[in-house]
Specification:
The termini are far apart. The chain is mostly beta strands and 71 residues long. The strands form two sheets. A four-stranded antiparallel sheet has the order 1-2-3-4, with no helix packed on it. It has a three-stranded antiparallel sheet with strand order 5-6-7, with no helix packed on it. The radius of gyration is 11 Å and the shape is globular. Strand 5 and strand 6 form a beta hairpin. It contains no helices and seven strands.
């Protein structure tokens, strides 16, 4: 099983999990225990993640919110 000892935020939806760990955003397939870095080019400091309507919303420690398309 995959461990996430430095995870800052996580959310799930549409059969996937999204995790911020060590400033990196990952997409995880929990059924197959597979995870891949999402190529956003951003260092993440998210406190909260929300999946809604095919998009991932990342709420950052400084108050910013980012919307990432999951399509």
């Amino acid at each position: 099983a995959t461990t996430w000892p430095a995870a800052r935020a996580a959310a799930g939806g549409d059969g996937k999990a999204y995790i911020v760990e060590d400033a990196t955003l990952y997409e995880m397939d929990p059924l197959h225990d597979r995870h891949d870095e999402m190529p956003t080019g951003t260092l993440w400091s998210s406190n909260h993640l929300v999946v809604m309507g095919g998009e991932l919303f990342a709420f950052e420690a400084g108050g910013s919110m980012y919307k990432i398309s999951l399509k």
